[in-house]
Amino acid sequence: MTKGVTLNGDILIAFNGKPEGDGVLPRRAQSPAGSSLDDILTLTPYGSSCSKHTYRHQKQMIKRIELINFMSHEHTVIEPSSGLTVLIGPNNCGKSAIVTALQILCNNPKSTYVLRHGAKECKIILETDSGDVIQWSRKKSGSPKYVINGELFDRLNGKVPDSLHAILRMPQVQVDKESFDVHFGEQTSPLFLLGDKEKAAAQFFASSSDAIRLVEMQDRHKSNIKIKKADLKRVTKRRDELIASNEILLPVQALHKQAVKCEKTGTEIADEQKQISKLEEFIAEISALKLRGDLLSQQGDVLDVIPELPTMQPTGQLHDAIEAIREAQRQVTMADAELKELSKLQPPPQLEATDALIQWMETWQQAEQTIEISDAGLKALSKLQDPPEIIPTGELGKTIDALQTHELTEQSLKQRLQAFADLPEVPELESVKPLTELISQYQEILSNQEQQTKLTDLVDASLKEIEIEMEDWLNENPQCPTCGGEISKDQILEGSGGHVHA
Length: 502
Prior knowledge:
Layout: E1 2-7, E2 11-16, E3 37-43, E4 62-70, E5 73-78, E6 84-88, H1 95-107, E7 121-128, E8 133-139, E9 145-148, E10 151-153, H2 162-168, E11 173-175, E12 178-180, E13 184-186, H3 198-207, H4 211-304, H5 316-342, H6 355-381, H7 394-422, H8 433-476, H9 489-493
């Protein structure tokens, strides 16, 4: 079984699987709230009870789809997986053309518009996992033709070869003069049978022998919704826990900034300590120069007391020494001022090991990644489909009344049969043909009555389950979501006309 859905014009989803039994009734997909369905593709093996075709009981699965010069596809090959296949792309990239190609392959409608511009011939080639190969093609001036497993079929006049549906099992369902396409749907069409008249829906369901499977599919869908809601609740709880953990780790970011700032300050202090060491060496040199200057000054004082100076030698060197002493004094004064200012600085803080801080940072980053994953999961879960709308049970009530009438008829026939059993043995008649025909009719009536009784039991069981679900819903929703008025449980369950909006 293969299903495909295009959401928001951006995604084509295809499901491949093999159903149980001879066939199942189709199920139309419903888009999540706020989404739109461009195209809906459902390929479902279908039993012979709803069609005039007779199929071999072989489960097929699409293995390969190839489009050549078909609409926007010059040459495209798609190989669906055995599970879920997702095709993603922008609008007008050809996702809907894949759905159109499968519709044309199955129904052979008018298709003069599908030939790619400038091409002479377009083709659709489909392969199944059982080795069947189906090819549909048409030229610009010719009519469509099929090649199925090497056999050519042309001049079809809008029809399809019988062997096509024997392989794909995807015909339209014929009920009287009406036909129903249970495999394909489009965005502009309402959900399956909801846009048709009540008579058409009744004809479709009356012709189906698998009505109970529709109820089972509805129940399974409700069960899936409950499971997904539980998953959503669990993921939401996990997200809240991660958010709480993240709030606890928020101070780590501020601590990281402070640690970086402290490291920067420590580096600056280390640089200043190096400068202080250089200044101390410079001060020592200045002190030595000062002592030398004092000595030279004392020598000068001694020379001043000499009454007569001897012949003086050139004093250029002495002047240079004096200037050097004065420059040394200036440097000593500046060094003292710098040393005084540096003495006001506080000692650098003691550095601690940063391993714990790095571990906290890694934990915080992992928490952020987990939150991103949780948000993505919540976003994916928000696209889940809503449960299908429950169809009015008016037609089902009529069917139940008809079944009760048949049951009364069966009881009357049994009483007559009992009366016939008490009669004496019938004498031999010349011709027993009328009696044989009557007995055959009676046996056919009994067989039909037994089938109707089984169907009635199934319908009663389904009605009880629906009644229980309606009671649970009424208990959870005592007020009308439309008008806000109180909903009467008796009016809904006892069939007194339903709720009247205020």
